[in-house]
Amino acid sequence: MPPFLPLALAIAMPPQAGLEAAVLTEINFARTRPRDYAERLRDYRKFFRGRIVRYPGNPDGLRTAEGTRAVDEAIRFLERQPPLEPIEPSALLARAARDHVREQGPSGRTGHISADGGNPRARVQRRGGGDYVAEVITYGPPSAVEVVRQLIVDDAVPGRGHRRTLFAAEMRYAGIACGPHKGYRVMCVADLGRRPDGRP
């Protein structure tokens, strides 16, 4: 976990330029070329010492729950995963994702439930869409590579739900929003749907 910035700086810090587009590009690399992505994870694995991973750009290290076990399991998954169609961007889904970032960032909250009790489906419906959507969120990773790697390795997540969502063949559209977060500096939300409006 990177050291926290002072609150005023964390809230003022804009998302990395192009981060949202870069996250989608990275997701699509993994979906369309899963075996090549597995090679990237093999390189990443070399930076582990026990459960701590120190990779270029993160010399302080990141403590994981599972160490290389989760990475190895992700590599095996990717080796068996057939290539999928790329995900297309959706403006409506991006607006729903942005709503969640704007609410959680200043408050420091985490999770998929809004302060009013709404879930990802409710947020998409408020924007005029349907309720056939799924959502993945990262807190902390500052780059597209780190965001997508966290979702695919899915360290300490039972059932690897984030990974399963990214590799669900029926998910063909996504809206991605990233922004500053009070506790973790950066958060990224991706809302995915079968159609660009989240309808069946």
TrEMBL record:
Residue ranges of domain SCP in the record? 80-188
> Which parts of the sequence are annotated with region: Disordered?
102-126
List the coiled-coil residues.
none
What's one Pfam family here? CAP
Please name the InterPro entries in this protein's record.
Answer: CAP_dom, CAP_sf
Q: What is this protein called?
A: Uncharacterized protein YkwD
Organism equals: Sphingomonas leidyi
